[in-house]
Amino acid sequence: MALTADPPASLIFYEPPLVVDGSSQLAALAAAGSKRVAKGAVSEIDDVINSILPPRKWTQFDGTSWIQFVSKVPPSRPELAQLEAALEQRLNQRQARNKGLCPVRSELHGQLFDELVRQITLDLPERGLLLLRIRDEIRMTLDAYRTLYESSIAFGVRKQLQAEEGLPELEGALTELLEKKKILESQVLAIKSKLELNQRRLLEKRTLEEKRWAEEIAFVFFSVSSTQNESVLFPPPCETLTFIHTKHSPPFPFLLNTAAT
Fold this sequence. Notes:
Elements: E1 18-19, H1 23-39, H2 41-52, E2 56-59, E3 65-68, H3 77-93, H4 103-123, H5 125-165, H6 167-233, E4 239-243, E5 255-259
Antiparallel strand pairs: 1-3, 2-3, 4-5
Helix pairs in contact: 1-2, 3-4, 4-5
């Protein structure tokens, strides 16, 4: 009974899978070694390809282990068209998002980049090694951003939990402050009403006092004018002036007022 392999789906071109079980594995390794010895320069490219893209291994449901090496054959133009069609088909099948962060889209484009590295390495190994450095740098950068994103998410969750822990206390304090605010507002209204009442009373009192002062001033003016009129109509009695001179008096005698008898 022939064994059938069901390899994982990938955009990278692989050779036919091989069963990994004792003598079969040794035969496969021997066949690969004979090809490298025969071809010479091709063995160096194979080593570079296998170091850049190691062979993949998997185990099926029946317990059979398989290994599959990356293809060492350059692709043709129809195969490149099939690669592009396969990428679009898998993006649609796995419902990858066109924008934003999408693990599915990132995984498929990573496989596509590895396939491009394989094709360029077959053409010129040195260029493939440079692309390998670029790929590793991009992956390290993405891993750093992913770690930073996960740590920021964890930090945000911790802060949210801490905020929720003190939320009931803050709500109670807010309710208490609102009640105090209402009490103070009622006190302010009462004080304002008292102030307006006192201002009205002071204004009324001042108006009454000004009116009383005006009446008193008018009465005083009336009294003074009446007295002056009486003094004009009824003058006081005449007074006689007597000169008294003594031997000790100064040169100018002083006047003495004597009432008329």
